[in-house]
Amino acid sequence: MTETSKPPKVQSQGIPALERAFLAASIRLTARFYSKDRITAMFREEAHLALELASRLSLEEGQRRVRIPRFFGVEAESCDWSVFMTLEHLVIANTAITAQLPRLYSGRDPCIDFPLEDLKPVPSAGPEQIESLATLRERYTEVVDKLGNLHAGSRCPHPWFGNFSAAQWHALAAFHTSTHRRQIERILKVR
């Protein structure tokens, strides 16, 4: 096979570069122009909606893996999850962000490294994820409420979006939760 006839490289993980750039800019703008409390309210509302959708499901319905088309903001690798797997992913990722925020705010602690492969849910995730996300929603709110200006402090890199301040990680938590709430809605339409 000649150099010119090689097929284009397929990105095995993540989302397309242009999409990442748009999302990063949107997250940065949200962090800049929305108040901390407004972003917290967005996060809470998206988590609430995800929990409402999941709470109506039986064990079998919640664990049924469904293939959905990839949509803006979602990795192709996560498009065959169940509702409970999606909730578990939200718990894992948002727990990491919850731990990251005070470190960034203080500007003293090093960043927490959470490799993307550690954010993947297990197929056996069950209805316990409903309570886990509900508990995390409250814990996240408590942590954010105790912090002052999230624009102060240090920054940590996100693997796709670059260096983020605590305010930007906070906005990411709201965006991320919204994206996966929409994923749950799409899963439920297919089943």
TrEMBL record:
Residue ranges of every copy of the DinB-like domain listed in the record: 43-184
Q: Which InterPro entries match?
A: DinB-like, DinB/YfiT-like
**What is the name of this protein?**
DinB superfamily protein
Source taxonomy = Bacteria, Pseudomonadati, Pseudomonadota, Gammaproteobacteria, Chromatiales
